[in-house]
Amino acid sequence: MPGTGDTYHFGNVHGPVNAGSGRQFVAGRDQTVYEGDGERRELVAQVAALRDALDGMRLTAGERGAADRELGAVREALDRDEPDREAAAGHLQRFTEGLRRAGALASAGAAAVGALSTLAHWLGPLGAGVLGLL
After folding, report:
1. How many angstroms separate the Cα of 129 from the Cα of each of 3, 55, 81, 89, 116?
2. How far apart are alpha carbons 71 and 93 in whole angstroms?
3. Whole-model pTM?
C-alpha cells in the first residue's frame, strides 16, 4: 500500500494523487470517484460511449463542438450530489437534435442509439423528446 509521500505519474498529471474515499470509475475519457452509486456509474458510462461515438461521426467542427458541450453539460448534471434530471434532459435533447440536424443520428450506430435510449429512459418523462427523435 503506497504511503502519503509516494508520487504517481499519469500522463501530464503528477502526484501525489488523492482519489477520495470512493471507488474510482473511468469510462472513456471521463474519470470520476463515486461511492457505491452503480446507477450513476452506468449513466456516466453511457455519456462516455456517446463521446466515443462522436469520433466516428461525420460532423463539422462547429457541430462537433456543440455536441461535445452538450454532453459535458449532461455529465455536469449527473455529477451533482443529487443529479439534475431536468438540466440533463435539456442538454441531451439538444445533443440529439444537433445530431439529427447534421444527419449523423441516422448513421450513429447501435452503441450511440443504445446510450441515448438508456439515458432517456433514466430521465423518465423528461426523456420523451429524446426517445421521439430516435
Report:
1. 50, 24, 25, 9, 11
2. 10
3. 0.72
